[in-house]
Amino acid sequence: MGECGLSTAGRTTRPRAVPELHVPHSRVGVSALCPCSQEPSPDNEGALHSSFCQLIEEQSSLVAGPSALLPSLDPIASTGLEPEQGEQHPGYATTLRILANMPSRTIGRSRGAIISQYYNRTARLRRRSSRPSLQQLNRTARPSLRQFDLESDPAHATLADKQSLLAKELLSLPPAQRSQVLMEVPLSLEEKRSLRMPSLCPHPPQGCRTLWYRFLALVHAAQPWHYALKQISGRFGSSVLSYFLFLKTLLLFNIISFLLLLVFVVALQAAYPPAVASPPPFTGLELLTGVGSFTHSLLYYGYYSNTTLNDPSASSPSGSTSPSRATQLPYNMPLAYMFTIGASFFATCILLMYSMYHSFLKSYRVGSSTGVLAIKIFSAWDFKVVQRHSVKLQSENICTQLKELLAEQRLRSCPLSLPQRLRHITVLLLAWLLALGTVLGCVVAVYYFSEHMHTVSTQEGVLLALPLIVSLLNTLMPHFYNLLAAWEKQDSPAAEVYVAILVLGLLCYQWLSRRLICSCWETCVGQDLYRFVVMDFIFTLLDTGFGELLWRLILEKKLKSKRRPEFDIAQNVLELIYGQTLTWLGVLFAPLLPAVQVLKLLLLFYIKKTSLMQNCQSPSKPWQASHMSTVFITLLFFPSFLGAAIFVSYTIWWEKPSETCGPFRGLQTIYQTPKVWVELLEESNPNIAWFSWIPQYLVENTVFLFFLSGIVLAVIYFNIQVLRGQRRIICLLEEQIANEGEDKKFLIQKIHSIYDRKVPRGKCWGSAGMESHCAPLLRAGAGGWE
Amino acid sequence: MGNKQTIFTPEQLDAYQDNPFRQRIAEVFSESGDGNMTLDDFLDMFSVLSEMAPRDLKAYYAFKIYDFNNDDYICKSDLEKTVNKLTRNELTPEEVSLACEKVIYEADLDNDGKLSLEDFQHMIIRAPDFLSTFHIRI
Predict the structure, then answer these.
(1) Measured distance CA(A670)–CA(A667) in Å, rounded
(2) How does it sit in the membrane (chain A) (predicted)?
(3) Contacts of B102 in chain A (CB under 8 A)
(4) Which residue of A has its CA nearest to B101?
(5) In chain B, what are the helix, strand and coil shares in percent, each to the nearest 5?
(6) Is A570 helix (H, G, I), strand (E, B) or coil?
(7) Which residues of chain A have pLDDT under 70?
């Protein structure tokens, strides 16, 4: 009696064999039954509960004595019962209907249930601090009981009452939380308006609000490239869009750096130019090499003066020509230079960490990584894609991905044999060795080439050779790595960035050791970096031209295939990261380099967009846009920005500035500038001697720094523990939900077994047997059944 | 889109997008359930599909869109219809059936053989891409 496919052993694992409810003597799939349309409305909770209570009462009265209950059950069973196949349990449809109308199940269906749920949530928000009394059930762990509060209360049965209650609750919340709750309620706009209406009255007048909305609309319309991005996402989807959004982010960083430097350093130096010899005439080659007439210009470090500009104490040559307005503010150029560079790095750091935080928030999820197929099916379709051809391509991509996932799962169920696994491991090892070997080879090649370049005479055109070689390597290596990845069937876009970063590291070391060769070494380094940036731009253009345009022409004309070249997102993003690293490295030595980078990014946007539209098709690899954007922002921060910041800090702290040029000539290190300034201040006004206390005891004191890093480490540890706790809670909650399901099955089994025992009237069961069946039913779900 | 009318028929919306779920979207957001939308329904639709809508709201409406028979559960037949619409019937019936079984196995937490709204929302929490794909740029 009571056959059942459930396994009670091991509540932690979900039973695998039973995806559907088991009914004795029949195997009716749950999906075959739908609750019919004449069921009692969920608003009429009283009728439902009373019918269920009646059912339990009738069963428990069987203990007292066998009365003919079957006829009284028939009305319930026959109302709205659909004809079922074969041996169908008479009460099965009823119980399913009742289950389908349980409060926790009606959330998606009825507005009354939605409003009650949000009423409870809002009430919880309001009285978050106080612990509810024991009689209140809205804090229970069982979801089916949580809605008990409002819905079983007969005084709140009507929809209008519930609505007014919710509106009242909303009024009691602060405005920001109120709009947050209203945004989340899944009701139509009209109803949200009616809920919000009472709260509009005590607010500022209408004129203010319309002005504010107009301003917001203007800000939204003024976003650059809004239509272009929409076009791109319409044809190519979210993955290619992530590249262009990344470009936009980099543009923002560079514009902020450029504005800071322009306002505080460049403009002032341009207003008070130092006395230099007349520059050589401008030839076109300067745009590429950065030497010649550009050497003694605002572009490089060497141009900036080391004195206080506009100093009133300095003797002015002709008193009548200098204006007598209050423009005699002296401006300490070295201090301004150092602090502006520091401020731009600090601002970039804050913005980067903020972007990283947002990306992580969107893409990182605590919990298990199962459910890949379900997630793929429900979130794979990109609703942004609009064009017919792209929609067709997207369908094909999803089809391919699903096939791959299914094949992978089939493979996992039958694991690889030993020789296959060995082959897989050897392929991986070989690929890794090849990658490492090429990286080391590139680094050594660049080292020897640059050593050779310094021994050769420095003709202008020859200066371009080193940047050319480095950019060539950077362009070719990713294609090689793509081949490797296709061979070993794994994806690792981060490997390509190691080549670029290692090469840059080597070059940094070389630049610092070159102090002995160049007279004004900072300008030399700045010129080198300028050449690298320009060469990187030229090579990006060449890569777009050859990789996309030429390839498409070859595919179309020679090979006559309809396929177009794919837009390689990883390679393009890594090129952007490389270019940005160069800019950050060079800010100290060439203050106008962010401006060059801004121009370069603007041109790059339009060129890439045009090439994309004309030549490419969307990538066929599965690309998790949000995950990859997090990876890119992280790559931008960790090797790229931190490396540049370390290099610049090292230069400021330890390197001796050159004697003949620049704002820091004559000092031991650049870092001495604020110390000198503080000493000057102390001399002029002994009252602010306390000001020198700050750098001495805060910045240079190691104890304070240890204390700060201790706090940071403690915060990180705390967050890790919180994450661990959350993972454990998720496991516990999943177990509880599974237990809920088991409880329901148990209850249904019990009801059906009691029906079955009741039906054969000839057989009589002792009251002891009945009690052992009914008592667990009455206790609603305790364990222990045979 | 016309300027003078207040109701958009599914055919008019059809011309604007080639989405396989366009019929379902129109049905879910229309007041009468047959696919004709008033201006308010239209605004509702774009507000849910915009960038600013919270994840739970999007998950709620996505659930309704994927629930083809409107029974508040995504059962196996709903899933099969979804997969066929996604892949334009390119997968074989065995593969479709296997995929649907796997999805139910992965996502169904209370073991009733179909996905309820809570199961769906729980799964969507673990899908970070959902916010960016369930989004129409205006």
Answers:
(1) 7
(2) Multi-pass membrane protein
(3) 373-374, 406, 409
(4) A19
(5) 55, 5, 45
(6) helix
(7) 1-113, 126-158, 197-206, 311-328, 364-370, 415-416, 456-462, 488-498, 514-516, 621-626, 695, 699, 760-786
* CA quadruple A544, A546, A547, A548: dihedral sign: positive
Residues pairing with A617 in the sheet: A566
Q: DSSP secondary-structure letter at A297?
A: S
CB contact under 8 A, A365 and B131: no
- Angle formed by the axes of helices A226-236 and A388-413, nearest 10°: 50
Tell me the shortest Cα–Cα distance from A670 to chain B, in angstroms.
46
CA distance A739 to A111: 28
Q: State the smallest CA–CA distance between residue B10 and chain A in angstroms.
A: 16
Instruction: Find which of B39, B110, B130 to mutate to test the A interface (most A CBs within 10 Å of its CB).
Output: B110
What is chain A's length? 786
**A chain contacts of residue B47, beta-carbon cutoff 8 Å:** 189
Q: Which residues pair with A309 in a beta bridge?
A: A331
List own/partner pairs for A481-487 with CB under 8 A and 24 or more apart: A481/A435, A482/A568, A482/A571, A484/A431, A484/A434, A484/A435, A487/A427, A487/A431
Q: How far is CA A354 from CA A220, A351, A359, A362, B64, in A?
A: 21, 5, 9, 13, 35
Closest in A143, A365, A392 to B128, CB measured: A365
Query: Which chain A residue has the Cα nearest residue B54?
Result: A184
- Provide, rounded to the nearest whole percent, the portion of chain A with pLDDT above 90: 12
Q: What pLDDT sits at residue A195?
A: 78
pTM (global) more than 0.90: no
A143 φ, ψ (degrees, to nearest 5): -60, -30
B86 vs A106, A377, A624: nearest CB: A377
Question: How confident is the model at residue A71, as a pLDDT?
Answer: 38
Write down the pLDDT at residue A256: 94
B40, B106, B124 ranked by CB distance to A373: nearest:
B106
Q: What is the mean pLDDT of chain A?
A: 73
The model's pLDDT over A81-113, given as tens digits with 9 standing for 90+, comes to 333 333 445 566 666 666 666 666 666 566 666
Residue of A nearest to B117 (CA): A108
Q: Which of A549, A542, A580 lies closest to A567, judged by CA? A: A549
- CA distances to A432, A575, A644 from A439, rounded to whole Å, are 11, 17, 20
Task: Tell me how far apart the alpha carbons of residues A212 and A218 are, in angstroms, rounded to a whole number.
Answer: 10
Instruction: Say whether B133 and A381 touch across the interface (CB within 8 A).
Output: yes
CB contact under 8 A, B133 and A627: no
Nearest CB to A627: which of B118, B124, B128?
A: B128
For residue A12 the two structure tokens come to 């932690």
Q: What is the ipTM of this complex?
A: 0.87
Over the stretch B33-85, which tens digit does the pLDDT of each residue have? 777 888 888 888 888 998 888 888 899 999 999 999 888 888 899 999 999 98
Burial per residue of A292-304, b for 16 or more beta-carbon CB atoms within 10 angstroms, e otherwise: bebbbbbbbbbbb
Q: What's the confidence (pLDDT) of residue A603? A: 95
Residue among A481, A450, A441 nearest A468 (CA): A450
Chains A, B: CB pairs < 8 Å:
200
**B135 Cβ contact partners less than 8 Å away, ≥ 6 residues apart:** A383, A384, B49, B50, B51
User: What is the DSSP track for A362-425?
Assistant: HH---S----HHHHHHHH---TT--SHHHHHHHHHHHHHHHHHHHHHHHHHHSPPPHHHHHHHH
**DSSP letter string, B71-135:** SSSB-HHHHHHHHHHHHTT-S-HHHHHHHHHHHHHHH-SS-SSSB-HHHHHHHHHT-TTHHHHS-
H-helix segments, A262-371: 267-271, 286-289, 333-363
